[in-house]
Amino acid sequence: MLFTLKQVQSGEFREAADNWKLEKLYVDLASAKNKGLTPVEKKILRGLLCGYSPGEIADIIYKTSSSSSVRVYLSNGLYKYIEVMLYSQTSQQVKINHWSRVTKVLEEAGYKLTSTLPQQVAPTFIEKSHHPEIRQNFDWGEAVDVSIFYGRDKELIQLENWIIRDRCRLVSLLGMGGIGKTTLSVKLAQQVQHNFKYLIWRSLHHTPPLAELLANLLQFLAQEQDSEFILAATIHQRTTQLLEIFRKSRCLLVLDNVDTLLQPRTYTGNFRPEYEDYREFFQRICEVLHQSCLVLTSREKLKELAAIEGVNLPVRSWQLKGLSEVDCQEIIKAKGVTCSEYEWRLLVNRYAGNPLALKIVLTTILELFDGKVSQFLKHNLLVFGGVRELIEEQLTRISEAEKQVLYWLAVKQDILLLTQTAEEDLPPGMTKGELWETLESLVRRSLIYKHSTTFKLLPIFKEYLNQQLSKQNSLQTEVIPNPNPGKLSSSPKVTEA
Description:
By secondary structure, the chain is an alpha/beta fold. The chain has 4 domains: 6-121, no CATH class; 137-319, P-loop containing nucleotide triphosphate hydrolases (Rossmann fold), CATH 3.40.50.300; 325-381, no CATH class; 392-494, Arc Repressor Mutant, subunit A, CATH 1.10.10. The protein has 20 helices and 9 strands. The chain has a 6-stranded parallel beta sheet with strand order 1-3-4-5-2-6, with helices on both faces. A 3-stranded antiparallel beta sheet has the order 7-9-8. Strand 8 (448-451) and strand 9 (454-457) form a beta hairpin. The termini are far apart. Residues 155-258 form the NB-ARC domain. InterPro entries: NB-ARC, P-loop_NTPase. It holds the Pfam family NB-ARC. This is NB-ARC domain-containing protein.
């Protein structure tokens, strides 16, 4: 196993003594245990105080990726000793159910030597203008040009607060295709860049294997970290090396198009078999204590992240919606089309503020209708050409059950009240539990939106689905009579509206 940093080479986590009152902690825990801590217990405790996860501690102590032995020491020993010790000091019950809570409760109990936060996450904001001696290293990869950028002021303020003020370890930007996730990720990175020593922006559009991506990241990050750096052989070890750098220096890593790693035609958020190792990688980024941040963009929410995110947790997601009418008006002006206030409002609402869809339509208006929105609106055609391609690109990834529910919603005028849905009103062959599961998946794909208990389709998706239903119904009427009139199936090929 290859660990090049001093913390890993020693294998003893001796640096914990630099920041914690170790001897006092040993004595107090021994009192709670009624006998002294064993050398292994002390070593594991020091590892936790240095911010290592149980898996990483096992890697260093036992040279294995399995953390079962360390977790046994924690759950059957150290956690209980700490709980008993703190109760004897404060008469208040403290429950430790996760390794990352140990440093917090011990710091609150006064066992930390200096800062009010663990060293790995203490504020070390790097303002370039104030610290010219600190060299910043940025690698923007294939990041797009955002010199022309519309709106998103609210999103930028909130996301910056999450990253800088709340020290989130992972932030996901989610939304349908064309909504502006990539441009927002670049603009956000530009806005917060001076708070980081290292910044890397990478697109996963070409679906790089994780081993290759980690090698690329480490070669950039380690060039000043360690002149004798040796790239580890396995993905697990490379992730450990990356996390070491994430602890030591404040880094911002942006990974765009994460949805390209996900499996199509199944429920949302599942990795393709050849990219399953990304699952553990993202989980370790979320769980391990460090001072860096990973920003992801995706059309789909990752299933594992959905389970561990929260408004008060270091893992959060932002569902990106369409631009405001005012911001969309700026796009219309920049394109040079002519329209009244009523016309541009109608145009924006029909495409739900999707900037890419709007730009595609405006280009058609310029080329076919001399830039006059009124002439285009007379044809009452929402979905065509590039807009159709944008929709179909998204719909090709969904499962048959999701497809069935989308057509069902289109027929039912987009509205579904779950509390009022009787069994006979469900899609054919689907239970209420299956319907809820499918709706959750569609929401995570940004294909439908939810307000209270009401689910609706975006106008352009509704228009597209109804076009497909009408087309297939016409073909069926001309060729083969439908033996089951009124029955709606999961595929438009056999659907009656």
